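B., you asked whether I could sanity-check this one before it goes into the benchmark set. Here's the sequence:
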Amino acid sequence: MTTFIPSLTLPAAVFANPAAAILLPVALGTAVGFSVRPTETQKTYLALRQPPFRPPPQVFGPAWTLLYGLMGYSAYRAYTTGMHPLASTEKHLLTKHGATLYTIQLGLNLIWMPLFFWAKRPIEATVDIVALTGVVGYLTYTWGQVDALAGWALAPYLGWLGFATYLTVGVGHLNDWNIADKEVKASPASKDTKYVDEREN
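And here's what the prediction gave me:
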């Protein structure tokens, strides 16, 4: 079982405050997204050979905003339930273990985009997202024992990570694990985007 590691865990005040718990991952995710320049990210994304069922670029922003919000709500719900004075000692421990897992997964989540789109290191990004999916799966199980709703709130996130892992591995494989020189000349002005493999057909 994962232990509670204070140095690797967000402050309790973040988990206990609903606004802080929900807004922190949304704000951090948005900041990372803008730090890697959305226009440049889209230019790279459209230049990559993609596996089937790839979503259009404009889907990712709203999807991640919702998932970050649910992630934050799960953190708040699990923490306030598990750390309630009337909660059992076992729930106290599970809640604190989950808080460490939550912090670790948030860090793994936030470094994926810079690894993939800024450093253009698909192998490292794949290792990161596989580890992230594993940690979130364990977190879902852990906090699900504290509060069922907290566990279910993480279910869409876990499902999306499974899909994102498929996309990451698929893109890496189809592009020979090298995306260093992948970029279209300009980001399309309209939503009628075409991927490089669509243009070649």
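One thing to flag: The first helix runs from residue 12 to 16. Otherwise nothing jumped out at me.
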